[in-house]
Amino acid sequence: MLCACSGEQFKLEEAPPQSPDSLATRDFSAGGLSSRTADWEPKIDDTQVDEVESTLKEALSLNYEEARALLGRLEYQRGNFDAALQVFQGIDIKGLTPRMVRAIAERTRQRKPRSKADIVVANVMSLHSVSLLLEAILLKAKSLEELGRYIEAAKECRIIVDTVESALPKGMPEGIGEDCKLQEMFHRALELLPNLWIKAGFLDEAVTAYRRALIKPWNLEHQRLAAVQKDLAKTLLYSGVEVSLPSQLQVWGPTTPKSNIEEAILLLLILMSKVGIQEIDWDAEIMDHLTFALSVTGMCESLTVHIEQILPGIYSRAERWYLLALCYSAAGQNEVALNLLKKACGSSEAKQRPHFPSFLFGAKLCSQDPSHAHEGINFSHEVIDLAKHRNEHFLDQGYKFLGMCYGAAARISVLDSERSIFQGESLKFLNRAVENGNGGPEAIFSLGLENAKQRNLDVAFDNMMMYSDMTVGSSGRGWQLLALIVSAQQRFKDAETIVDFALDEAGRMDQLELLRLKAVLQIAQQKPKQAVETYRILLALIHGKKEHWHEDKKLGQAIGFRHEAIKEKNLETEAWQDLATIYADIGSLIDAKSCIDKAQLIEFFSPRSWHITGRLLEAQSLYKEAFVSFSISLSIEPDYIPSIVSTAELFLKLGMQSLPIVRSFLMNALRLDPTNHDAWFNLGLVSKNEGSLQQAADFFQAAYELKLSAPIQKFE
């Protein structure tokens, strides 16, 4: 071989020993000619001389390329990447590419079995030759990669893909990998090319390379094909570059993925189905990426289906219930989530090691719903007990949730003595969570909120200032609560200044809520015109966002984000309701009715809309119709306090005979909210009408003091 490379004469009558991998040997044997002169020399006639001569010249030429390929491989294996690159650069890839394309196409074409006497088409390289040259190109690309020249490496690697794809436009035929390394070299190139583009920073090229590897049947093994699909999904999810599908791939009509994230979800769902039928091994990364993709698109409920389909043995029962609970909670179904957590923490798992995340999540969910406050207390005690033994860094989280659950239990307590005890316990455990230092800003926020609800306004103000310092003023709800605390101190102008400052720092959703708060503060300062202008800005922003949502829906991009849309819908309803209240206060009942009609077009079954409708009817002395509206409001939400109080006021206007009914309504309102000054005031009127003047004076005094510390909105 080296003699041929150095240009020495090739003697037919003394055939040099050929290695099994020699190109010349393979080409002759492939053509049905023996390398022994005695066997074939007498049989060659004049018409075959030129063909044999050209074949020999071709063989000598390819031997030179083969030698460089082998020498380059040796240098690469030794780690001499510069030397390997110099050797590989001596191979005329550009000149050989057309011949390699032809050889792959001819050699892989389906053909009938032939006898030894048949001669293949002249001047066609063998697949072994092509494999060796493709390996040389691949090693050249890897050498460039090792030297940090990623763009050049990607271009070299792309030559392999282009070459094979040009020769086999319909994909790789079966069985080609049995005789040579062509298929293996091509598969390695398919896997390497997108990684090189990623390292070079050309993410759009990487996505294109991944798609090329998947759109045709290249005979990739199941596991390798799954790896390519997973890598493409990861790139689509996290690259930050939107690479639309080319027109030739948009063959599914309206179901064609219209964005990177849709395509990624489709790939991950395919992979999960392969895991389900055990075509590929379980890969936790696939589930992680699918969880992320469905979460950011607001499709958490769909994720539950795939968690339930995971084969037994991957997750324990408690882990599976916990993951399902996370999904349902993210989808807004906290009741379902809590039931699953009760299973994970229940008697069926008593013999297993306690699943700490389930107890912690259960405590969190219960702390958000007063109706589950007592269950939350039990969850929180379990969290504290478990944290003392193996999760000490979660101890303060247990104290925080315990304090929040005690606060919620106080607000649903019927007995004053029990309520007082729960309020004390709430502050005790929240202060402990803050004092230990591991509760974080959320513990301070919860403490400030609880102090505000208990009307410890000065302490609550200090808590929120500390919270603001810890979050560097980046929390919209922190600014909201601080403004409400200041408004409860009757410093409306200062509260509005806080809101104005927060508007410059807040995100889009917080900005909408802060705008409404600003308008309510302007109403409290007797500035109806400014309040109406603020509501106009708020509604314009919401309307612009709705148009954006509709446009995204037409483009097929509005996959999720239902919670955000629901919040905006509620804000729009509340804005029209507030406007109706403004117009009612200034005596413009027609405008007020128009605003409340718009609110009911958005949400017909809103207790506040029916309550305001009742107040408008009451202002027109239509007491029977007003009573019907208040009744509808209470049928929608039986514990809606404003309608309970308004119903009591309406009964009070009917005269002495209805005083017991009025007292019953007002006591129910105070049971739900002991700090409601309107209920205390009307209860004083009842006592006055009954002749209990001292009791009436006490009720009026309570109403006056509570009104002085009442926020313009409910502390939440």
TrEMBL record:
Gene3D superfamilies: Tetratricopeptide repeat domain. InterPro entries: NPG1-like, TPR-like_helical_dom_sf, TPR_rpt. TPR repeats lie at residues 677-710. Keywords: TPR repeat. It holds the Pfam family TPR_16. Coiled coil: none annotated. This is Uncharacterized protein. It comes from Arachis hypogaea (Peanut). The lineage of its organism: Eukaryota, Viridiplantae, Streptophyta, Embryophyta, Tracheophyta.
